[in-house]
Write a sequence for this structure.
Protein backbone atom coordinates (compact mmCIF):
# COMPACT_ATOMS: atom_id res chain seq x y z
CA UNK A 1 0.00 0.00 0.00
CA UNK A 2 1.06 3.57 -0.61
CA UNK A 3 1.55 5.73 2.48
CA UNK A 4 1.66 9.53 2.89
CA UNK A 5 5.42 9.56 2.09
CA UNK A 6 4.92 7.83 -1.26
CA UNK A 7 1.97 10.05 -2.19
CA UNK A 8 3.86 13.20 -1.19
CA UNK A 9 6.92 12.26 -3.29
CA UNK A 10 4.66 11.29 -6.19
CA UNK A 11 2.84 14.62 -6.06
CA UNK A 12 6.07 16.58 -5.69
CA UNK A 13 7.64 14.81 -8.64
CA UNK A 14 4.59 15.39 -10.87
CA UNK A 15 4.47 19.07 -9.89
CA UNK A 16 8.16 19.44 -10.66
CA UNK A 17 7.67 17.76 -14.04
CA UNK A 18 4.86 20.17 -14.85
CA UNK A 19 7.09 22.95 -13.49
CA UNK A 20 9.76 22.11 -16.08
CA UNK A 21 7.24 22.68 -18.87
CA UNK A 22 6.13 25.98 -17.35
CA UNK A 23 9.73 27.17 -16.88
CA UNK A 24 10.67 26.13 -20.43
CA UNK A 25 7.61 27.91 -21.82
CA UNK A 26 8.26 31.09 -19.82
CA UNK A 27 11.92 31.19 -20.87
CA UNK A 28 11.28 30.34 -24.53
CA UNK A 29 13.07 27.02 -24.30
CA UNK A 30 10.12 24.80 -25.21
CA UNK A 31 11.07 24.34 -28.85
CA UNK A 32 14.81 24.58 -28.43
CA UNK A 33 14.79 21.57 -26.09
CA UNK A 34 11.75 19.92 -27.64
CA UNK A 35 12.53 16.25 -26.87
CA UNK A 36 13.37 17.07 -23.26
CA UNK A 37 10.00 18.76 -22.91
CA UNK A 38 8.24 15.91 -24.73
CA UNK A 39 9.76 13.54 -22.18
CA UNK A 40 8.55 15.74 -19.30
CA UNK A 41 5.03 15.98 -20.78
CA UNK A 42 4.95 12.20 -21.17
CA UNK A 43 6.06 11.85 -17.54
CA UNK A 44 3.18 14.06 -16.38
CA UNK A 45 0.66 12.11 -18.48
CA UNK A 46 1.99 8.75 -17.23
CA UNK A 47 1.92 10.01 -13.65
CA UNK A 48 -1.74 11.02 -13.96
CA UNK A 49 -2.52 7.69 -15.68
CA UNK A 50 -0.84 5.73 -12.89
CA UNK A 51 -2.80 7.63 -10.26
CA UNK A 52 -6.04 6.89 -12.08
CA UNK A 53 -5.23 3.17 -12.21
CA UNK A 54 -4.28 3.10 -8.51
CA UNK A 55 -7.60 4.79 -7.70
CA UNK A 56 -9.64 2.31 -9.76
CA UNK A 57 -7.79 -1.00 -9.34
CA UNK A 58 -5.50 -0.50 -6.35
CA UNK A 59 -1.74 -0.41 -5.94
CA UNK A 60 -1.28 -4.20 -5.79
CA UNK A 61 -3.44 -4.92 -8.85
CA UNK A 62 -2.04 -6.54 -11.97
CA UNK A 63 -3.38 -3.60 -14.00
CA UNK A 64 -1.18 -1.17 -12.08
CA UNK A 65 1.83 -3.50 -12.19
CA UNK A 66 1.63 -3.89 -15.95
CA UNK A 67 0.91 -0.23 -16.59
CA UNK A 68 3.79 0.80 -14.33
CA UNK A 69 6.47 -1.35 -15.99
CA UNK A 70 5.30 -0.83 -19.57
CA UNK A 71 4.98 2.95 -19.17
CA UNK A 72 8.33 3.06 -17.38
CA UNK A 73 9.95 1.32 -20.32
CA UNK A 74 8.41 3.80 -22.77
CA UNK A 75 9.53 6.73 -20.60
CA UNK A 76 13.07 5.35 -20.49
CA UNK A 77 13.09 5.16 -24.29
CA UNK A 78 11.78 8.75 -24.45
CA UNK A 79 14.54 9.87 -22.06
CA UNK A 80 17.08 8.03 -24.21
CA UNK A 81 15.93 10.04 -27.25
CA UNK A 82 16.01 13.22 -25.17
CA UNK A 83 19.63 12.45 -24.38
CA UNK A 84 20.31 11.90 -28.09
CA UNK A 85 18.85 15.36 -28.74
CA UNK A 86 21.47 16.83 -26.40
CA UNK A 87 24.09 15.18 -28.61
CA UNK A 88 22.55 17.08 -31.54
CA UNK A 89 22.91 20.35 -29.60
CA UNK A 90 26.56 19.71 -28.78
CA UNK A 91 27.48 18.56 -32.30
CA UNK A 92 25.23 21.06 -34.08
CA UNK A 93 28.17 22.80 -35.77
CA UNK A 94 29.45 19.53 -37.22
CA UNK A 95 26.13 18.80 -39.00
CA UNK A 96 26.21 15.31 -37.56
CA UNK A 97 22.44 14.93 -37.04
CA UNK A 98 22.12 12.00 -39.43
CA UNK A 99 24.93 10.05 -37.77
CA UNK A 100 23.54 10.78 -34.32
CA UNK A 101 20.11 9.46 -35.35
CA UNK A 102 21.62 6.31 -36.86
CA UNK A 103 23.87 5.75 -33.84
CA UNK A 104 20.96 6.25 -31.44
CA UNK A 105 18.77 3.72 -33.27
CA UNK A 106 21.64 1.23 -33.57
CA UNK A 107 22.41 1.44 -29.84
CA UNK A 108 18.73 1.12 -28.91
CA UNK A 109 18.36 -1.98 -31.13
CA UNK A 110 21.54 -3.51 -29.72
CA UNK A 111 20.30 -2.92 -26.15
CA UNK A 112 16.92 -4.46 -27.04
CA UNK A 113 18.64 -7.53 -28.58
CA UNK A 114 20.89 -7.91 -25.55
CA UNK A 115 17.90 -7.63 -23.20
CA UNK A 116 16.04 -10.25 -25.24
CA UNK A 117 19.06 -12.57 -25.10
CA UNK A 118 19.11 -12.23 -21.30
CA UNK A 119 15.40 -13.01 -20.78
CA UNK A 120 14.72 -15.50 -23.59
CA UNK A 121 15.01 -18.46 -21.20
CA UNK A 122 12.05 -17.18 -19.18
CA UNK A 123 9.22 -19.61 -19.85
CA UNK A 124 6.45 -17.28 -18.70
CA UNK A 125 5.80 -13.56 -19.09
CA UNK A 126 8.59 -13.17 -21.64
CA UNK A 127 7.41 -9.72 -22.79
CA UNK A 128 7.12 -8.40 -19.23
CA UNK A 129 10.61 -9.64 -18.34
CA UNK A 130 11.92 -8.14 -21.57
CA UNK A 131 10.36 -4.75 -20.84
CA UNK A 132 11.85 -4.71 -17.34
CA UNK A 133 15.30 -5.81 -18.55
CA UNK A 134 15.29 -3.27 -21.40
CA UNK A 135 14.46 -0.47 -18.98
CA UNK A 136 17.31 -1.37 -16.62
CA UNK A 137 19.83 -1.82 -19.44
CA UNK A 138 18.83 1.46 -21.05
CA UNK A 139 19.63 3.29 -17.80
CA UNK A 140 23.16 1.93 -17.94
CA UNK A 141 23.52 2.65 -21.68
CA UNK A 142 22.17 6.16 -21.01
CA UNK A 143 24.76 6.61 -18.28
CA UNK A 144 27.62 5.58 -20.58
CA UNK A 145 26.24 7.83 -23.36
CA UNK A 146 26.04 10.77 -20.95
CA UNK A 147 29.63 10.18 -19.90
CA UNK A 148 30.76 10.17 -23.54
CA UNK A 149 28.79 13.38 -24.08
CA UNK A 150 30.42 14.98 -21.04
CA UNK A 151 33.85 13.99 -22.39
CA UNK A 152 32.87 15.59 -25.73
CA UNK A 153 31.81 18.79 -23.93
CA UNK A 154 35.20 19.00 -22.22
CA UNK A 155 37.08 18.17 -25.42
CA UNK A 156 35.14 20.63 -27.60
CA UNK A 157 35.17 23.31 -24.90
CA UNK A 158 31.41 23.74 -25.01
CA UNK A 159 30.52 26.81 -22.94
CA UNK A 160 26.70 26.97 -22.85
CA UNK A 161 25.93 26.78 -19.10
CA UNK A 162 22.34 25.64 -19.48
CA UNK A 163 23.26 22.82 -21.85
CA UNK A 164 26.12 21.74 -19.57
CA UNK A 165 23.82 21.65 -16.55
CA UNK A 166 21.21 19.64 -18.46
CA UNK A 167 23.87 17.06 -19.42
CA UNK A 168 25.34 16.88 -15.90
CA UNK A 169 21.94 16.50 -14.27
CA UNK A 170 21.16 13.67 -16.67
CA UNK A 171 24.46 12.03 -15.70
CA UNK A 172 23.59 12.24 -12.00
CA UNK A 173 20.07 10.91 -12.69
CA UNK A 174 21.18 7.96 -14.84
CA UNK A 175 23.94 6.97 -12.43
CA UNK A 176 21.57 7.14 -9.44
CA UNK A 177 19.10 4.83 -11.19
CA UNK A 178 21.73 2.46 -12.61
CA UNK A 179 23.31 2.14 -9.14
CA UNK A 180 19.89 1.64 -7.54
CA UNK A 181 18.95 -1.13 -9.99
CA UNK A 182 22.32 -2.82 -9.49
CA UNK A 183 21.99 -2.70 -5.68
CA UNK A 184 18.46 -4.14 -5.92
CA UNK A 185 19.79 -7.03 -8.05
CA UNK A 186 22.65 -7.66 -5.65
CA UNK A 187 20.65 -7.46 -2.42
CA UNK A 188 17.21 -8.90 -3.11
CA UNK A 189 16.41 -9.14 0.61
CA UNK A 190 16.68 -5.37 1.06
CA UNK A 191 15.21 -4.36 -2.28
CA UNK A 192 12.10 -2.80 -0.64
CA UNK A 193 14.31 -0.12 0.94
CA UNK A 194 15.96 0.73 -2.37
CA UNK A 195 12.61 0.66 -4.16
CA UNK A 196 11.49 3.35 -1.72
CA UNK A 197 14.38 5.55 -2.87
CA UNK A 198 13.45 5.28 -6.56
CA UNK A 199 10.70 7.96 -6.58
CA UNK A 200 12.92 10.27 -4.53
CA UNK A 201 15.67 9.97 -7.14
CA UNK A 202 13.01 10.61 -9.78
CA UNK A 203 12.51 14.13 -8.38
CA UNK A 204 16.11 15.10 -9.08
CA UNK A 205 15.84 15.39 -12.86
CA UNK A 206 12.74 17.65 -13.05
CA UNK A 207 14.09 19.77 -10.21
CA UNK A 208 17.46 20.33 -11.88
CA UNK A 209 15.82 21.04 -15.25
CA UNK A 210 13.48 23.57 -13.60
CA UNK A 211 16.57 25.25 -12.17
CA UNK A 212 18.41 25.17 -15.51
CA UNK A 213 15.49 26.64 -17.46
CA UNK A 214 14.43 29.20 -14.88
CA UNK A 215 17.73 30.43 -13.46
CA UNK A 216 20.15 30.15 -16.37
CA UNK A 217 19.67 32.30 -19.44
CA UNK A 218 20.48 30.70 -22.80
CA UNK A 219 23.32 33.21 -23.22
CA UNK A 220 25.07 32.23 -19.95
CA UNK A 221 28.55 30.84 -20.51
CA UNK A 222 30.95 28.84 -18.37
CA UNK A 223 34.45 27.36 -18.75
CA UNK A 224 33.84 23.59 -18.77
CA UNK A 225 37.43 22.67 -17.86
CA UNK A 226 36.80 24.28 -14.44
CA UNK A 227 34.05 21.75 -13.78
CA UNK A 228 36.07 18.61 -14.52
CA UNK A 229 36.96 16.48 -11.52
CA UNK A 230 40.46 15.93 -12.93
CA UNK A 231 41.87 19.44 -13.62
CA UNK A 232 42.66 20.05 -17.31
CA UNK B 1 28.91 -10.27 -11.39
CA UNK B 2 27.27 -8.03 -14.02
CA UNK B 3 25.26 -6.18 -11.34
CA UNK B 4 28.42 -5.59 -9.27
CA UNK B 5 30.22 -4.22 -12.33
CA UNK B 6 27.30 -1.88 -13.12
CA UNK B 7 27.18 -0.78 -9.47
CA UNK B 8 30.89 0.10 -9.36
CA UNK B 9 30.72 1.98 -12.70
CA UNK B 10 27.56 3.82 -11.66
CA UNK B 11 28.96 4.94 -8.31
CA UNK B 12 32.22 6.17 -9.87
CA UNK B 13 30.33 8.07 -12.59
CA UNK B 14 27.79 9.37 -10.06
CA UNK B 15 30.62 10.93 -8.05
CA UNK B 16 32.10 12.48 -11.20
CA UNK B 17 28.80 13.95 -12.34
CA UNK B 18 27.79 15.08 -8.86
CA UNK B 19 31.09 16.93 -8.31
CA UNK B 20 30.88 18.59 -11.76
CA UNK B 21 27.22 19.49 -11.24
CA UNK B 22 27.96 21.12 -7.88
CA UNK B 23 30.91 22.98 -9.40
CA UNK B 24 28.63 24.29 -12.16
CA UNK B 25 26.26 25.63 -9.45
CA UNK B 26 29.17 27.23 -7.60
CA UNK B 27 30.72 28.69 -10.77
CA UNK B 28 27.79 31.04 -11.27
CA UNK B 29 28.28 32.59 -7.82
CA UNK B 30 32.09 32.81 -8.11
CA UNK B 31 31.75 35.77 -10.50
CA UNK B 32 29.57 37.73 -8.07
CA UNK B 33 31.29 40.21 -5.75
CA UNK B 34 30.21 40.35 -2.12
CA UNK B 35 28.94 43.65 -0.76
CA UNK B 36 31.14 45.29 1.94
CA UNK B 37 28.35 44.61 4.45
CA UNK B 38 28.36 40.83 3.81
CA UNK B 39 32.16 40.86 3.78
CA UNK B 40 32.07 42.39 7.28
CA UNK B 41 29.48 39.92 8.58
CA UNK B 42 31.12 36.81 7.17
CA UNK B 43 34.74 37.89 7.40
CA UNK B 44 35.22 36.87 3.76
CA UNK B 45 36.87 39.58 1.68
CA UNK B 46 38.25 37.92 -1.48
CA UNK B 47 38.91 34.20 -1.19
CA UNK B 48 36.87 32.21 1.28
CA UNK B 49 38.20 29.36 3.38
CA UNK B 50 36.40 26.08 3.94
CA UNK B 51 36.37 26.81 7.67
CA UNK B 52 34.02 29.75 7.01
CA UNK B 53 31.33 27.45 5.62
CA UNK B 54 29.72 26.37 8.91
CA UNK B 55 29.59 29.98 10.16
CA UNK B 56 28.04 31.29 6.94
CA UNK B 57 25.45 28.49 6.99
CA UNK B 58 24.54 29.47 10.56
CA UNK B 59 24.06 33.07 9.41
CA UNK B 60 21.96 31.82 6.48
CA UNK B 61 19.66 30.02 8.90
CA UNK B 62 19.05 33.28 10.74
CA UNK B 63 17.58 34.83 7.57
CA UNK B 64 14.09 34.14 6.24
CA UNK B 65 14.09 31.19 3.86
CA UNK B 66 14.14 31.82 0.10
CA UNK B 67 12.49 28.84 -1.64
CA UNK B 68 14.49 29.49 -4.84
CA UNK B 69 17.88 28.72 -3.31
CA UNK B 70 16.93 26.12 -0.68
CA UNK B 71 17.70 23.07 -2.84
CA UNK B 72 20.94 24.39 -4.29
CA UNK B 73 22.19 25.16 -0.74
CA UNK B 74 21.30 21.59 0.26
CA UNK B 75 23.17 20.22 -2.78
CA UNK B 76 26.25 22.30 -1.93
CA UNK B 77 25.95 21.18 1.72
CA UNK B 78 26.08 17.54 0.54
CA UNK B 79 29.05 18.38 -1.68
CA UNK B 80 30.81 20.06 1.27
CA UNK B 81 30.29 16.92 3.40
CA UNK B 82 31.70 14.79 0.57
CA UNK B 83 34.75 17.08 0.43
CA UNK B 84 35.19 16.81 4.22
CA UNK B 85 35.07 13.04 3.92
CA UNK B 86 37.72 13.08 1.15
CA UNK B 87 39.83 15.51 3.17
CA UNK B 88 39.88 13.26 6.19
CA UNK B 89 40.55 10.06 4.21
CA UNK B 90 42.17 10.11 0.74
CA UNK B 91 43.58 13.63 0.94
CA UNK B 92 45.78 12.64 3.89
CA UNK B 93 47.73 10.37 1.55
CA UNK B 94 47.65 12.55 -1.58
CA UNK B 95 48.92 16.12 -0.99
CA UNK B 96 47.58 17.48 -4.31
CA UNK B 97 44.12 16.24 -3.36
CA UNK B 98 44.41 18.05 -0.04
CA UNK B 99 45.00 21.35 -1.85
CA UNK B 100 42.09 20.61 -4.21
CA UNK B 101 39.62 19.82 -1.38
CA UNK B 102 40.70 22.97 0.48
CA UNK B 103 40.09 25.14 -2.58
CA UNK B 104 36.71 23.47 -3.25
CA UNK B 105 35.63 23.92 0.37
CA UNK B 106 36.50 27.61 0.01
CA UNK B 107 34.31 27.83 -3.12
CA UNK B 108 31.44 26.23 -1.18
CA UNK B 109 31.83 28.86 1.56
CA UNK B 110 31.82 31.64 -1.06
CA UNK B 111 28.67 30.16 -2.62
CA UNK B 112 27.00 30.21 0.82
CA UNK B 113 28.09 33.85 1.31
CA UNK B 114 26.54 34.82 -2.04
CA UNK B 115 23.33 33.02 -0.99
CA UNK B 116 23.44 34.99 2.29
CA UNK B 117 23.73 38.22 0.33
CA UNK B 118 20.63 37.28 -1.70
CA UNK B 119 18.70 36.35 1.43
CA UNK B 120 19.55 39.66 3.08
CA UNK B 121 18.35 41.51 -0.03
CA UNK B 122 15.21 39.35 -0.04
CA UNK B 123 14.50 40.11 3.66
CA UNK B 124 14.99 43.83 3.04
CA UNK B 125 12.56 43.69 0.13
CA UNK B 126 9.97 41.94 2.30
CA UNK B 127 10.46 44.46 5.10
CA UNK B 128 10.07 47.36 2.68
CA UNK B 129 6.84 45.84 1.35
CA UNK B 130 5.47 45.46 4.88
CA UNK B 131 6.36 49.08 5.70
CA UNK B 132 4.51 50.26 2.60
CA UNK B 133 1.41 48.28 3.60
Amino acid sequence: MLGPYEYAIWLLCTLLEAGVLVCAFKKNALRRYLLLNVYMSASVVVSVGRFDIVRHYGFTSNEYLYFYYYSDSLLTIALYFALASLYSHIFSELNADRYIRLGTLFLLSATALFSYAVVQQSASKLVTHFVLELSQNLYFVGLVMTYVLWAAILKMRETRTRLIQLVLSMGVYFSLFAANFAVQNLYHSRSSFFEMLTPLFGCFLPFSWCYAFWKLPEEARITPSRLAVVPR
Amino acid sequence: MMAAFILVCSVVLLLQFFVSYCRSLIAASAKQMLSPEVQDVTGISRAASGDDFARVIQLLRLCPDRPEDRNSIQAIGAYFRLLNFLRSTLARMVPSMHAWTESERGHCAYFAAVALERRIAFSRGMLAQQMEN
